[in-house]
Design goal:
Strand order of the largest sheet: 3-2-1-24
Distance between the termini: 38 Å
Low-confidence stretches: 1-26
Order of helices and strands: HEEEEEEEEEEEEEEEHEEEEEEHEEE
Largest sheet: 4 strands, antiparallel
CATH architecture: 6 Propeller
Radius of gyration: 18 Å
Number of strands: 24
CATH class: Mainly Beta
């Protein structure tokens, strides 16, 4: 992937404070998925014992909590990437074979749970575009095919549009027509502190009024390790007033935010001095409140969390 600053650099640069576990605050637990190593695991918002669901990465749970979309390894050598869906109840895995090529990743569920949006490598132009696929019938299409070199896909609250960025511009793409409907400078969203890369990830709040995103930042907290002067932080953008503020402090590393139901808390992946000493991946999963700004350890070892958005009867 083309990037101004690689996600690998963010990983090396991060360090965060040691945080304590906090119990779930919901009246009823909701499903949570995350990645660990080369596999995807299922737990809930109360932190029950995780169970392995599938082999893959970049998991995102459907709004109703019934399915998990993820990036599955493909090809004889396992270096290819395909979009896949796992049904939680049966653990049945379906590979989206109608998506052409061997390089698609990072699926994002539409608000109605009927379609997936993802990064797709267009072999003809040799560049990144946005693809969509409907798990029910496998119908595939490319949105705004003329808009090459676009990253960070996410849906609007009503599902009528999707957003993406090319390191300089934020695009809103109309889904029915598949054309770009709006362009604006990306810096109007990310602000002056965040450093933009192709790894930027947005998470839309359950009510659609707030955007979480992660980005590299200058290591002002003097957390530099291995010679890298960068840290990673999570920001909150409110489109209504155009304001953006940093949520995580200088002494914490954070990336891959994901809202919890209610829009008052979110999950993120990060690591601190103790985790950094591990011989395996240092990433843990934390839970943070918007109101208090306090983060607590949720899962000791894991990455890329995603939570069910609706409390549904299953």
């Amino acid at each position: 992937m083309i990037s101004m600053i690689s996600k690998g650099a963010r990983t090396i640069a991060c360090a965060c404070v040691v945080l304590a576990f906090a119990a779930g605050a919901f009246a009823a637990p909701v499903a949570v998925v995350f990645s660990k190593g080369e596999s995807i695991f299922l737990t809930d918002s109360e932190g029950k014992q995780p169970v392995k669901l599938a082999k893959g990465s970049n998991p995102e749970i459907s709004p109703d909590g019934r399915f998990v979309a993820f990036t599955a390894p493909s090809g004889k050598d396992g270096w290819g990437r395909k979009i896949a869906v796992a049904e939680i109840a049966s653990k049945k895995i379906t590979i989206m074979k109608t998506v052409p090529g061997e390089n698609s990743y990072g699926p994002r569920w539409s608000p109605d749970g009927k379609s997936l949006l993802f990064n797709h490598w267009d072999e003809q132009s040799a560049d990144w575009v946005f693809g969509t696929v409907a798990p029910a019938d496998g119908s595939f299409r490319v949105l705004a095919p003329e808009q090459k070199g676009i990253y960070s896909p996410f849906w609007s609250a009503d599902g009528a549009s999707v957003y993406g960025q090319d390191l300089d511009t934020l695009y809103r793409i109309d889904v029915p027509s598949g054309t770009v409907g709006e362009r604006r400078p990306l810096a109007e969203v990310t602000g002056s502190e965040a450093m933009v890369s192709s790894a930027l990830r947005f998470s839309l709040s359950p009510d659609g009024t707030m955007w979480l995103f992660d980005a590299q930042v200058e290591d002002t907290g003097k957390l530099m390790k291995h010679g890298e002067p960068l840290n990673s932080a999570i920001f909150l953008h409110t489109p209504a007033d155009g304001k953006t503020r940093r949520l995580t402090p200088e002494n914490i590393c954070a990336m891959h935010p994901s809202w919890l139901p209610g829009g008052e808390e979110f999950l993120f992946a990060g690591y601190g001095p103790n985790e950094a000493k591990r011989t395996s991946s240092p990433f843990a999963i934390f839970r943070q409140s918007l109101e208090s700004g306090k983060a607590t350890l949720f899962i000791k070892e894991g990455d890329s969390p995603s939570a069910e958005r609706k409390r549904s009867a299953k």
